[in-house]
């Protein structure tokens, strides 16, 4: 159940072609959902009406026509008092959100890959969703032709495809992660470079802030005016219908036109105002006379100011564009300097504010054109704000106020960022300080390892042992006391007491090490006998004396090398190299002058062993040896 909810099955399974077909089907379903929602609303109103003008077929035709009107298609009312068809082109902007949201969600879901289908191409997904949606729109256009409010085919062809394509493109863009580039190759290089700059993003954010302030101010103006003219609004509602169903329908229509009223209020605050008929302009400077009848009876139109010149209460609406320009300037000039990023500077702040003003003007012009339209012929042929006037006024207000505010704020922030807080600037030029003398390092003699520990200098902790060092690590290798037998036994005793009798009572087995012989000392290299050096010296001296007595003066050996003593057997004596630090027992040898060497545990190479025959020793003594230049030999007789 969870898997089926999280991953709904695909409508069409297969490759990319099947995915595009599924996207087309999804677009048709989105159009059907929107048309069905409007149809349900119209049928509810028709059923609740006590005096319907037509049957259910007429209600269905009206629903199809109203669904096309939501997309911007202009309708035609053929049954008029004069007999001439009257156009109806005012689109309730609140109802436009329904098809736009449906197309957006459909395109986003179609562009995402599913379990059994790959992700279609971005352009293919947009075209497929748009095509499926327009198929249903064409059928609705053909069905509504014979109804009381048919739609003009040309108007439908000019408004439906762009709206649906833009909504589908936004959905596909969202499905791909809202990428900001790269732009297509056919886009000019200057435009691509300009859009890639950081001030472009700042300008877009500033334009959004300015537009939001404008529309919010328009809503506030409409609300205040409705409260001020609450009596007139109530009378218009009661005069249009005497039953609760009709009044409910009027309230629903007024709610759908609230975004239109917000745009009108914003344009009124900008200055150009709006039209309530041909030549009947309503501006803060004054409202033209609408004749004896005044504006058409409708609750929202009751908030329109009365005819006549404007007063100070009407002029206070200038606060709305002033706030919008200040919002644009604050967004463009209020950026703080980011470390590692160059300072935007005054020029970039002004350019961003100017670009934001142009974007605000374009958005206001589009909204003004969408919020108005004709409501008939004659005087009602022009109803609502004029788009080019509204756009121009928006650019003038936001650029005229936004650019100076951005420059001033940017200069103020640069001044605060350049000066350190709390440190006054120096009153005048300060001479540079003389550099400190640098000591030339000389040769440092190495310390004597055999000397006292104080000669090696004070102990300096390593960087990793210094708590003030950034690389200090509180967790390091365990100290040497961790291997101390006393500390180890204490730890075992604590663990045994904490275990509650679960651990055995025997102490841990100590680590076996080399035994220290009696009379020996322990140093870094192990255990060494105290008389090792003395025995080594005695062994060498005994060997030298023994060789001299047994073999006589040194003679050249078979190898031709000079020998200092007979104990070396033709080898040059070397320095006293201590043997391995493994003590051995004293082995008694024969009572010869080199006995000390045997008792020291090192065999004498010249001492006769058990494996040497007397003949071999005699043969070895008869070998002549090379004379030694340093040894004068025995004294000669005269």
Automatic annotation (TrEMBL):
Residues 520-549, 614-628 have a biased composition (Basic and acidic residues). Residues 417-476, 503-638 are annotated as: Disordered. The chain crosses the membrane at residues 20-47, 86-104, 125-144, 156-175, 202-228, 248-267, 274-292, 312-330, 351-370, 390-409. Residues 423-452, 575-591 have a biased composition (Pro residues). Keywords: Membrane, Transmembrane, Transmembrane helix. It comes from the Bacteria. InterPro entries: DUF6350. Residues 557-566 have a biased composition (Polar residues). It holds the Pfam family DUF6350. This is Integral membrane protein.
């Amino acid at each position: 159940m969870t898997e089926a909810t999280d991953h709904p099955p695909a409508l069409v399974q297969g490759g990319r072609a099947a995915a595009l077909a599924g996207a087309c089907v999804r677009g048709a379903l989105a159009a059907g959902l929107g048309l069905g929602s409007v149809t349900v609303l119209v049928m509810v109103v028709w059923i609740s009406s006590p005096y319907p003008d037509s049957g259910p077929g007429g209600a269905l035709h009206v629903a199809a026509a109203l669904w096309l009107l939501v997309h911007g298609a202009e309708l035609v009312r053929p049954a008029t008092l004069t007999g001439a068809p009257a156009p109806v082109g005012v689109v309730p902007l609140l109802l436009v959100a329904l098809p736009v949201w449906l197309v957006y969600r459909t395109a986003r879901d179609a562009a995402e890959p599913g379990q059994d289908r790959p992700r279609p191409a971005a352009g293919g997904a947009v075209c497929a969703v748009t095509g499926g949606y327009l198929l249903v729109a064409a059928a609705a256009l053909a069905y509504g032709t014979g109804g009381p409010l048919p739609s003009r085919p040309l108007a439908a062809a000019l408004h439906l495809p762009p709206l649906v394509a833009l909504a589908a493109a936004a959905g596909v863009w969202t499905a791909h992660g809202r990428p900001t580039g790269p732009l297509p190759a056919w886009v000019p290089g200057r435009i691509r470079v300009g859009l890639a700059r950081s001030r472009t993003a700042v300008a877009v954010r500033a334009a959004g802030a300015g537009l939001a302030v404008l529309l919010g101010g328009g809503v506030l103006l409409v609300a205040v005016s409705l409260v001020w003219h609450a009596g007139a609004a109530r009378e218009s509602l009661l005069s249009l219908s005497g039953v609760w169903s009709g009044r409910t329908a009027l309230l629903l229509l007024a709610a759908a036109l609230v975004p239109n009223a917000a745009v009108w209020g914003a344009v009124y605050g900008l200055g150009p105002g709006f039209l309530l008929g041909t030549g009947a302009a309503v501006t803060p400077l004054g409202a033209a006379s609408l004749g004896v009848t005044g504006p058409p009876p409708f609750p929202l139109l009751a908030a329109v100011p009365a005819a006549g010149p404007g007063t100070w209460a009407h002029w206070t609406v200038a606060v709305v564009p002033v706030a919008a320009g200040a919002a644009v300037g604050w967004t463009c000039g209020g950026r703080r300097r980011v470390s590692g990023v160059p300072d935007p500077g005054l020029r970039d702040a002004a350019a961003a504010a100017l670009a934001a003003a142009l974007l605000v003007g374009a958005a206001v012009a589009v909204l003004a054109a969408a919020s108005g339209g004709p409501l008939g012929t004659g005087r009602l042929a022009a109803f609502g704000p004029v788009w080019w006037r509204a756009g121009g006024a928006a650019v003038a207000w936001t650029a005229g106020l936004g650019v100076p505010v951005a420059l001033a704020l940017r200069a103020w922030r640069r001044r605060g960022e350049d000066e350190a807080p709390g440190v006054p600037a120096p009153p005048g030029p300060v001479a540079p300080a003389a550099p400190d003398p640098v000591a030339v390092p000389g040769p440092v003699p190495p310390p004597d390892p055999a000397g006292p520990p104080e000669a090696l200098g004070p102990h300096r902790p390593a960087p990793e042992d210094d708590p003030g060092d950034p690389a200090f690590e509180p967790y390091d290798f365990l100290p040497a006391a961790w291997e101390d037998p006393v500390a180890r036994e204490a730890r075992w005793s604590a663990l045994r007491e904490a275990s509650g009798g679960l651990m055995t009572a025997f102490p841990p087995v100590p680590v076996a090490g080399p035994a220290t012989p009696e009379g020996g000392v322990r140093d870094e290299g192990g255990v060494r006998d105290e008389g090792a050096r003395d025995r080594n010296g005695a062994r060498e001296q005994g060997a030298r004396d023994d060789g001299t007595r047994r073999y006589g003066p040194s003679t050249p050996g078979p190898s031709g090398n000079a020998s200092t003593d007979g104990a070396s057997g033709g080898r040059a004596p070397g320095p006293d190299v201590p043997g391995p630090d493994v003590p051995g027992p004293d082995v008694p040898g024969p009572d010869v002058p080199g006995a000390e060497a045997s008792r020291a545990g090192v065999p004498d190479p010249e001492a006769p062993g058990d494996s040497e025959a007397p003949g071999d020793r005699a043969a070895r003594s008869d070998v002549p040896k090379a004379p030694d230049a340093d040894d004068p030999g025995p004294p000669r007789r005269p």
